[in-house]
Amino acid sequence: EDVDIKPGNALPLKGIPIGTLVHNIELAPGRGGMMCRSAGTSAQVLDKTMDGFALLRLPSKETRKVAMNCMATVGEVSNPHHKDEKVGKAGRNRLKGWRPRVRGYAMNPADHPMGGRTKGGKGIVSYSGKVYKGKRT
Length: 137
Fold this sequence. Notes:
Layout: E1 10-12, E2 21-23, E3 25-26, E4 33-35, E5 43-48, E6 53-57, E7 63-67, E8 71-74, H1 90-95
Antiparallel strand pairs: 1-8, 2-5, 2-8, 3-4, 5-6, 6-7
């Protein structure tokens, strides 16, 4: 329990001072860290209540109560600029397992209800094939 409040040290929330930034926070004691684990994130300890809970401000600005005997790691997760990374080309997305996204309007009529550029036909329809533009509802 007598651990220094230095970045990277993990200890229960009851041992962490108010105002400290923490990450990798448990939601239930012994279940492992579940909150604030992605790049550049952290939560701030706002308050400690008398009923055994700590108030945390999450990256989404939500305030959440967590049991004081839950573990958390002091500091914030590294690489805060991860969200600014440019993909650059389609091949980088393919390497991540993302498949290309083809618009229904660009397909043939056999492949999609919105497909084809011929005159007449159904017009613009929903995925289930129901007309949804220009028709009274």
